[in-house]
Design a protein that fits this description.
The chain has 167 residues and is α+β, with helices and mostly antiparallel strands. It has 2 domains: 83 residues, no CATH class; 59 residues, DNA Binding (I), subunit A. It is built from 4 helices and 6 strands. The strands form 2 sheets. The protein has a 4-stranded mixed sheet, with helices on one face.
């Protein structure tokens, strides 16, 4: 039961991801309703069987302020698919400032990328263009919905209708 469940607010906006156990408890206590289940899987008790939730919707609206993805080492790695953005390897990874700190580069989503130690050393205190290195893709700040959909690692096809970026 290491599956994850998408939690939607009363207005169907995604607010969280939780464990199957927590989702089942919310449904059982009538605090949420089941919208989608995981096909072919169920939760069993001594006397009953219940569908395993994939998406639930809360029964009352929870006011949540603007949600953003926290800037962290692990989230940068997730965004970059655990690959060096210069050579594509996935071993000996570290973070690299595209514009080096020594030249005023900040710790931000648009200035930090995943790099292997070898490429990071080769780039040194230069910008990529100065040492003839190219990024696989430009660094970007993921939205909360995009992060849930693409980087949580627990996505399910049943989540897709609820995680539209423009929604």
């Amino acid at each position: 039961m290491n599956q994850r469940v998408l939690v939607l607010n009363l207005d169907y906006s995604p607010i969280s991801v939780c464990s199957v156990q927590r989702a089942f408890l919310l449904i059982y206590l009538n605090k949420a309703q089941l919208l989608n289940e995981i096909e072919g899987k169920e939760i069993r008790s001594v006397n009953s069987t219940y569908p395993m939730p994939a998406v639930i919707k809360l029964n009352r609206y929870i006011n949540i302020p603007y949600r953003s993805v926290e800037l962290s080492r692990q989230n940068i790695f997730k965004r970059d698919n655990f690959q060096c953005q210069y050579c594509g390897t996935n071993s000996n990874l570290t973070l690299d400032h595209v514009i080096p700190s020594s030249k005023g580069g900040k710790n931000s989503w648009t200035n930090l990328v995943t790099a292997c130690k070898s490429c990071n050393t080769r780039k040194g205190h230069h910008e990529p263009s100065e040492v003839d290195m190219k990024l696989a893709r430009e660094p970007f700040r993921p939205s909360f919905i995009l992060f849930l959909r693409d980087f949580s690692g627990f996505g399910d096809n049943t989540w897709e209708p609820y995680l539209k970026v423009g929604a």
